[in-house]
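step: validate -> pass
step: tokenize input -> pass
step: predict -> running
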Amino acid sequence: MVQTRGAVIAATGLFTPEQSISNDELVTAFNAYVDKFNRENEDAIRQGLVEALSPSSTEFVEKASGIRSRYVMDKAGILDPARMTPHLAERPNEEVSLLAEMAIRAAEDAIARWGKPASRIGAVLCAASNMQRPYPAMAIEVQQALGIEGFAFDMNVACSSATFGIKTAADFISSGSCDAVLVVNPEICSAHLNFRDRDSHFIFGDVATAVIIERADEASGGWDILGTRLKTVFSNNIRNNFGFLNRAARPTDSLESAQANGEGADPLTDRLFVQQGRKVFKDVVPMVSDMIVDHADHLGLDPKGLKRMWLHQANINMNQFIGRKVLGREPEPHENVIILDDYANTSSAGSIIAFHLHHDGFESGDTGLICSFGAGYSAGTVFVRKR
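step: predict -> pass
step: emit ->
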């Protein structure tokens, strides 16, 4: 019979970029782009051939999302009305790649908090929405930089990547494959966001997180993983079609050149992040709420007794609705952690940022929930108990 071992979240780490963009700064840049576009296409707009763009506002952004600012790897390129995308220079193959560098910074923070040598880690998982390249795996690059033996691989389940990574790591621990696993979630979300789209130009930010999962009988302190559950349901309502089978248009391509190439009004459309926000809300919120309650019941836990929830940081309205459904009442701010006001949506890293920054006040035996959800659709739940 295969012996299973308990798994523990032993430590977490966080890398936050130095640069940030406020809503006021972002809206000013977007509206400058809108004015420029409408001026340059005045005749076509008058003839009904092109639709005029509408300006955004700080009030609209905050009401729609709860976001007030976001951290980014390159501020200047995003705020340049002639560019509207980060300028992230390519590095030689001999240098550590940008995504790996972010992951390494977060991992070093987690390892320092763990207080044990990285050599005790047996596997590295890089779980994120958008990898910088198909191969070599980003995880293997991180593994080499940290001097870790064993194995490493990348995995992508969009915004749910972190919880999928935690379950995978916990399963490795339980099966005896590893004694400790490092999961990193580097996200340069600003590079796949269309900053020319009024409905989504404010959504994402950049960050990297790290989680160390360790076998329970070797861990000191930390959080027992009581149970993990994953769910996927296919949907096109959140999609990113960027890939090697299509030609990625340059962000600075003009409207005229895009139309000449048969690409329509916006060369970025459908090559970057796109979503049907209302459909996503309608589909995902009940799916995730029911999943949390059912998983808690399976584990013999009362969801109303959770001390804290660290949900995916996509939209404040989604999080508040899920919180009410799970707890059966309006959650207190400390019960349903929100960090997207400062960080925006950071895809897979969001729930881990919330957990990393706001796990204080727990006593031994207190329970909480790490939960993520997003494109796929995908969702993951990780119930934890303070040791």
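step: describe -> DSSP finds twelve helices and 13 strands in the chain.
step: cleanup -> pass
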